[in-house]
Amino acid sequence: MGAIRDEIERRLRAAFAPTHLLVIDESDQHVGHAGHDGRGESHFAVEIDSPALRALGRLERQRAVNRELADLLGGRVHALRLKVG
Q1: Could you write out the DSSP letters of every residue in 5-71?
Q2: Bridge partners (DSSP) listed for residue 46
Q3: I need a surface site. Which of 8, 45, 51, 73 has the fewest CB within 10 A?
Q4: pLDDT averaged per 10 residues, the chain (length 85)
Q5: Is the whole model's pTM more than 0.85, yes or no?
Q6: Strands (E), 1-85
Q7: Which residues pair with 47 in a beta bridge?
Q8: DSSP summary character for residue 16
Q9: How far apart are CA 10 and CA 4, in angstroms?
């Protein structure tokens, strides 16, 4: 597990107290694509189930997660796929 993956998990646990959280590094599936610079940890999928997020609409969920990860999304993380249960 990488440092960025661990940081994503730490932040989402602290912000949303999820009952389920899975952070998957999908970077190796994007070799040669935009945003993949060879260092890895650039493309992630997040599955999260949290009462705090379930109370929000789809767009608001994405915005809430993006706020928690804003500095990562503006830097190393090129793509984030989100599934809220």
Answers
A1: HHHHHHHHHHHH--SEEEEEE-GGGGTTSTT--SSS--EEEEEEE-HHHHTS-HHHHHHHHHHHTHH
A2: 23, 82
A3: 51
A4: 90 97 84 57 91 93 94 85 87
A5: no
A6: 20-25, 43-49, 79-84
A7: 22, 83
A8: H
A9: 10
